[in-house]
Amino acid sequence: MTTVREILDEQRAFFRTGATRPLEFRVEQLRRLQDALKAGENFLLQALAKDLGRPAPEAVVSEIAMVAAEIEYAAAKLRRWVRPQRRRVPLLAFPASGWIQPEPLGVVLILGPWNYPVQLLLMPLVGAIAAGNCAVLKPSELAPETSRALARLIRDTFSPAHVRLLEGGPDLAEALVSEPFDKIFFTGSRSTGRRVMLAAAHHLTPVVLELGGKSPCIVCKDAPLDVAARRIAWGKFLNAGQTCVAPDFVLVEEPVCEALIEALTRAIREFFGDNPRRSADYGRIVNRAHFERLRSLLSGGRVILGGDMDAESLYFGPTLITDVSPDAPLMQEEIFGPLLPILSFRHLDEALEWLAQQPAPLALYLFTRQRAIQERVLARTRSGGVCINDTILQVAARELPFGGLGPSGMGVYHGHASFQTFSHYRPVLRRSLFPDWRWRYPPSRLALSRLKCLARWLLRW
Ligand code: NAD
Fold it and tell me: Which ligand 1 atom is at minimum distance from the Cα of 409?
């Protein structure tokens, strides 16, 4: 059986041949991935339905179309991205030229989670290939059908010396992160992220950590409540709430709290009918352990809508919760499921003060028409990203880098940011061999005061 080290050695040897560097190779590999996605769409959708009860329309957009659009964008922009960037050099180095050239890192490791198992494994891969790297991928063992489908797709598309997918659980993941990869790109939970970073420290391997957190959603009284409710309910109950950037809880201005709850109730009924269990558009919880974890969170407040569930089919209904205790686990840990706590506030400043004391979340959502409030919230809060007057869509804006801050992660990707994440920006200074001024060499021939003047002048550009 091939060991992880042998796989790494094989990819390193391939990388050293320089085969991954030419622009044409990168674009060709991206196109191959695009064709494979198109050809394999049906078996990926079937696998996602089996693993997550994922409705096909939702899966097409959030898993397949996102990756296809990322490939299209990278292939179109790559010629520009790989171009060296000229930089001015100081007179001291004159005559000389300076530039920065993006270089591939080598062999990178990409570890994916189960909640968007296709998108979150292949989006970083697009950046890795575009930047000219070799890659080892490991999808989550908690979405086994999708893992198998992805293994087949990767095997049929790439040479294993260039891109290889390994299937397995935590044991394999631990074996992988203890190898000297040139970068580890990890998407998953905070606790596993910590383990990845510790293991990577041994080889000083740089890491990107795409983690989670409790993303707040602030609703001010001037917001159009029907639109806000629809957008919040859509972002929250997509994939049955198992989305890293789902609004975790709502903070609504007190005078409109009741009206927002009514609007959310209407939106949920509009989307999934009176019995969401029978809706073809509503997903399921990934496994029994997560189902039980969500059930235990229910005690953190008063259920005013939903709360219905079925352990057998892993159905957990869209649930609204009020009278939330701030110390309950519901408000202490990332919910990652279809439970939406609704808290109200009287003064925005108090709410912002409380938010500032919480760990920086992956996303922050705000519904208000007023620019002054938008600016105040931006100035007084911290988060990986922000979306004003909608939810989730910031992820699809590929010219906006995506990533967390502090406990919600480090490093960014999507679009150009992915290419940058998987590149080393190598600075190069090219000097002329003539003239070779003697005064720079010891022994010093100038008085200190004159040297200072000269240095100030020569170190300008
Ligand atoms: P997880 O941390 O349990 O697993 C993620 C990956 O890590 C899996 O491939 C798993 O096999 C692997 N792994 C397990 N043990 C490991 C170890 N000791 N060392 C290295 N790797 C190991 O996460 P999950 O349950 O699959 O995903 C849910 C979490 O991911 C949530 O917290 C969510 O917020 C977060 N998430 C973040 C993003 C983002 O983009 N920031 C996206 C999706 C999910």
Answer: 41
Residue 461 has a pLDDT of 61
Minimal-distance CA residue to ligand 1 atom 43: 244
**Do residues 106 and 15 touch, judged by C-beta distance below 8 A?**
yes
Q: Extract the tokens encoding 289.
A: 């352990």
Q: Regarding the domain with residue range 4-211+412-424, which homologous superfamily does it belong to in the CATH classification?
A: Aldehyde Dehydrogenase; Chain A, domain 1 (3.40.605.10)
Q: Answer whether 176's CB lies under 8 Å from 111's CB.
A: yes
Question: What is residue 92's predicted lDDT score, i.e. its pLDDT?
Answer: 86
Phi/psi region, residue 306 (left: phi>0; alpha: psi -120 to 50; beta: rest), is left
Strands 107-111, 183-187: pairing is parallel
Residue 132 in contact with residue 21, Cβ under 8 Å? Answer: yes
Annotated domain spans of the chain: 4-211+412-424, 216-403
Choices 3.40.309.10, 3.30.530.20, 3.60.110.10, 3.30.43.10: CATH for 216-403 = 3.40.309.10
- How does the average pLDDT of the chain come out, rounded? 96
CA of 314 to the centre of ligand 1 (A): 20
Read off the pLDDT of residues 379-408 as tens digits, 9 standing for 90 and up.
999 999 999 999 999 999 989 999 999 999
Q: How many helices and strands in the chain, by DSSP H and E?
A: 16, 18
pLDDT digits 0-9 by tens, 45-94: 999 999 998 889 989 999 999 999 999 999 999 999 999 999 999 988 88
Report the sign of the C-alpha dihedral through residues 286, 118, 191, 179, in that order. positive
Residue 190 CA: nearest ligand 1 atom is 32
CA dist 8 and 10 (Å) reads 5
453 in catalytic set: no
Average pLDDT rounded to a whole number, residues 3-32: 97
- Residues whose CB is less than 8 angstroms from the CB of residue 38 and which lie 6 or more positions away in sequence, other chains included: 68
